Amino acid sequence: MLSFLPKTPKDITEELRAKFKARRKSLNYTQDELSSRSGVSLGSLKRFESSGKISLESLLKLALVLECLEGFSGVCEEREEMPQSIEDLR
């Protein structure tokens, strides 16, 4: 995919799936251990790591245990308006 195109929900889901799995492995947690620590069922964790499908509540529980929950606090924050053209920069 060309990098200047906006990411789709599917693209973001795949990125999150891969990042969470990599983070789990970097902390040396097995799926069983992460499931137990987070309270997310093993089936839900396995489904997330294979397909990206998971409830928001379960995703946030995993993020808490994997020490990346703070990354979600910036979702939907107001942003500065971006210039639409070169003329807007002048």
Classified by CATH, the class of one domain is Mainly Alpha
So, the CATH homologous superfamily of one domain?
lambda repressor-like DNA-binding domains
Largest sheet: none
Q: Work out the helix count.
A: 5
Instruction: Calculate the terminal CA-CA distance, rounded to whole Å.
Output: 32 Å
* Strand and helix order: HHHHH
Q: What's the shape?
A: elongated
CATH architecture of one domain: Orthogonal Bundle
The Cα radius of gyration reads: 17 Å
Which stretches are low in confidence, meaning pLDDT under 50 for 5 or more residues running?
A: none
Portion of residues in beta strands equals under 5%
Count of DSSP strands: 0
Q: Structural class given helices, strands, pairing?
A: mainly alpha
What is the fold named in CATH at topology level of one domain?
434 Repressor (Amino-terminal Domain)
Average pLDDT confidence is 90
Helix content: 55-70%
